[in-house]
Every structure is written in C-alpha cells, then in structure tokens.
Amino acid sequence: MADDLRDWLKKVEEREELRRLDGADWNLEIGCTTTLNWKKRGPALLFDKIKGYPPGFRVLTCSLLTPSRIALAFGLSPDSSDKQILEELRPMVPQWEARLDKFPPKTVKTGPILENVLSGKDVDLFRFPVPLWHEKDGGRYIGTGDAFITMDPENGAVNLGAYRVMICDSRTVTFHIQPTHDGHVHIAKYHAKGKPCPVAISVGQHPLIFGVAGRRVAEGMEYRYVGAMRGEPVEVIEEEVTGLPIPADSEIVIVGWCPPGKTRTEGPFAEGTGYYGGAEERSIMEVERIYYRNNPILMGSLTDRGHTDHSLFGKLLGSLVLENRLKRCGVRQVKGVFEHEITQNYFATVAIKQQYVGHAKQAGLQLASLLDGGRFVIVVDEDVDITSLEEVIWAVCTRANPLKDIDIISGLPASDIDPIFRKGETERTGSKVVITACRPYSWMNEFPEVIKFNPELIKGMKEKWAGILEL
Ligand SMILES: Cc1cc2nc3c(=O)[nH]c(=O)nc-3n(C[C@H](O)[C@H](O)[C@H](O)COP(=O)(O)O)c2cc1C
Q: What is the DSSP letter of 112?
C-alpha cells in the first residue's frame, strides 16, 4: 500500500498511467484538459511549469479515475477490474468498521508538511497555481480534491470532508458545505457561541484520505477509517495555530479561522449534478498559515455528471459502505448495493434474495432512508447484475408493475445543490422514488424464465470459434 501521495504516484508512473504535462495555463487549460481526459478514462495528469509559476509547483488531476489506480491506493493488484475491487473490498468494509477504535491517528512532532511555512504577511494563496477550472466558476478553487478538517467543540471528534473551497483574495477563502455535513455542524456550534471555528484544509494528500473525506463513510472517524484500511495509524501533526491534527505527509495545508457573521460570495461552481450551482453568500476562512512540502502538489478533483475524477472510487467504496449499513439495519439477504455513476448517489440499486412478502419494498424504503441526496432507489432480484445500468433498467421494465411497485416518499431532507429547486426556495424538501423491480414474491416460481444458455455450451462455443469470432 502506498505510503503517501508521492509513493502512490510513483507506483502509478511505473504502470505508465501518469503523464507529466508542462506549460499549461491555470486559466481554464488545466480544467479543460482534465475534463477531456477523464471522459476517455485516461492517465493521471501531473501539470508542472504552469504559466506564471515556478517549476515544481504542481497540480494533479484524474488521480482515482481507473480501477488500477484505485487498486494501487488500496494495495490490491493493479490488474483488478472494478468488479474485482468491489468483491475484494466487500468483506473488508465490516472489518475496517469493527477496528476503528484500534486506529486513532498517531501524533508525531514533525513531517514533510512542515518543510515550508508561510505566516503573517507572507500568507498568499496565489503562490500556488490554483486553476480556474471552468469558464463560469466564480473564482479559482483551491479545494476540490481536499480534506477540510474541523473539530466538534463538544466532543472533540475530528471530521474530514471534501468540500469545495474558493479563493476570495490572497488570505481569504469561502467554501460550500451542505447543512447535513459534519463540517457545517461543527462550524455552526462555534458560531452559536459567538466564537470563530478553527479550520485546516489539506489540498493534496494520500488518495485514501481524500477518498474517505469525500464519502459518507465514517462521520468524525475518517482518520481512524483510513488507519484501519491501511493497517497502520495515520500520522498527524498538531497544528500550532488551530491545534487541529493535520496529515504529516500532506502536500499543502492552509489553516485559519472561520469567524461568525462574515461572508463572501461563493460560486458559481460546476457541480456533480452536471450543472453550475448558483453563487451565494457563505462563510469564510481567514487564512493564518500555509504549510507546504517542497515541490508541492495541489490535488484537483473535478465534479460533473457521469464518470469523473472521484466517481469510480465513490461508487465502489460508497456502495459497499451503504450495503453494510443496510445490512446493519436488519434487512436480510442483501446481495449488493450499487450507486451508479450517473449523478452518483441520485440513483442506487439494491439486490436481494427475497425471503417473504414485502421484503423487497422494505429493502428499498430502508435504503432510501439511508441515502444522502439520492432520488431513485431500485430493488432487484439477485440474478440481476446491479453494476450494469442496462440490466437494472431491463429489470425495471420487465418486473415492475407501476401501479403497485412504485412508491413516492416526500418531505425528506434535500441536497442544497439539487438542481430541481428554484433558487431562493426556502421550503426545500426532497422526494424519493422506490421502484420494486422484483418478481412478485407470491408467484415468483411461476414467473417467466429468463433466457440463457448453459455455461458449458457457452464455453464450448467460445472454444469452437476461437480465432474466427470473439465471443
Ligand atoms: C470531489 C468531491 C467534492 C465534494 N464537494 C462537496 C462540497 O462542495 N460540499 C459538500 O458539502 N460536500 C461535498 N462533497 C461530498 C462530501 O465530501 C461527502 O458527502 C462527505 O461524506 C461529507 O462528509 P461529512 O458529513 O463528514 O462532512 C464532495 C465530495 C467529493 C468527492
């Protein structure tokens, strides 16, 4: 398993899955190149010698785009397919969750992140080649592939979330955190007492730290979760100004305070829904210090619809975590949960082996209650490959009877980047659809038989026509 981002990059480069690109402009060129590259599921991109910046101040994108790069982050065989990764990680998720108390972060005195420190009048966020990612972004976003670190003032729990962070000026950033996310809750607790909230934002780090920060995996336990995954605690340094634990081998960390009552305009920004989100007044962070390694790497992770920088990782780990949660809720015979990449957690499928009348609907409703922003939940029988959107839609078309198999639930919390709400709408409650696309339990044995050939015959035909036909 990779020790830090650089060690992982080395392994990625050994597999010829890294391209070094010199001479890009931070102004749109990095964003556009990244988007064209992830559409082709291309290599990881390390931009250097960025226009107007000294060599060595680098930007990394497309990091977790392919199964092999994700496998390398987990220490699995880089030849694994996404399905193989899913199968390998499935038994590990409950084991990691059971071991969280054994892996608190380990505080160390020093680490590479302390190689350079900017404080006082030297604080300048524009020292880093932060891209203007998209044409209509409201500013240069330093936090896209980040881990935003806060502490709950009541119980000391440290949370890591991937939230977008925009530069307002050389010493101020603003950010967007959904109200249901822990970072928002922590900040609100400080502000309720009229106090500024301490914040540290790592904007380049071990891929697993970013991966876990970007998914609802273990709220307030992210350091422990990464420790359990790696089998060794994450090394952190107690940061001098804020007291927050920052990863000792991060690339760049900015620290400071989020004061109550001060806001700046944040956005627009190209969001994971595939649309630009609107600009709004949001809290700020006044930056007190910037720490960075020699030749720092800013990690970028663009969001959009479909397959993007982080979506495959999110889909694999996110699906397994949801599956584990669903099982823990007492739903029996769950064979898999899968969040499809098209607008990610807006569309999820669960496969079950039906045990009793109503079982399928119970699984769907329970999953709908666990999903963050998700809108469409589909329940299928175990014979359907839930990783294939085509198969799922086939099951919906042939096993769901709309009159009795579609349930709509309303009045649920909604994501505040949900495009279906009009700007300024105050009463934003979401609704969900649960489609039960299973054979009817009471006569499932009489349901028409699925067309298929026996595996022996298939094998025989593949052998028979080998070299002439690729079957
Ligand atoms: C690339 C990426 C960007 C994200 N941007 C945001 C964001 O701007 N605001 C937000 O609230 N959540 C964002 N998320 C989702 C959160 O990071 C994620 O839901 C996380 O689980 C929140 O955890 P928390 O409740 O511990 O804060 C993003 C996730 C990824 C992977």
A: G
Q: Which atom of ligand 1 is nearest to the CA of 180?
A: 25
Atom 23 of ligand 1, nearest CA residue:
161
Mean per-residue pLDDT of the chain: 95
Q: Alpha carbon of 466 to those of 452, 462, 469: distances in Å?
A: 21, 6, 6
> Are both 249 and 343 inside the same structural domain?
no
pLDDT in tens, 196-220: 999 999 999 999 999 999 998 887 8
Does the beta carbon of 303 lie inside 6 Å of ligand 1? yes
Cβ neighbours of residue 336 closer than 8 Å, sequence gap 6 or more:
319, 323, 350, 351, 386
> Residue 301: CB within 6 Å of ligand 1?
yes
Q: Are residues 280 and 357 in the same domain?
A: no
Same domain, 343 and 260: no
Dihedral sign, Cα of residue 34, residue 37, residue 41, residue 46: negative
Please state the domain count of the chain. 2
Helix H segments across 180-299?
182-192, 207-213, 222-230
- 468 assigned to some structural domain: no
CA torsion 42-45-51-57 (nearest 10°) is 170
Range of the domain at 386: 329-446
Q: Are residues 280 and 352 in the same domain?
A: no
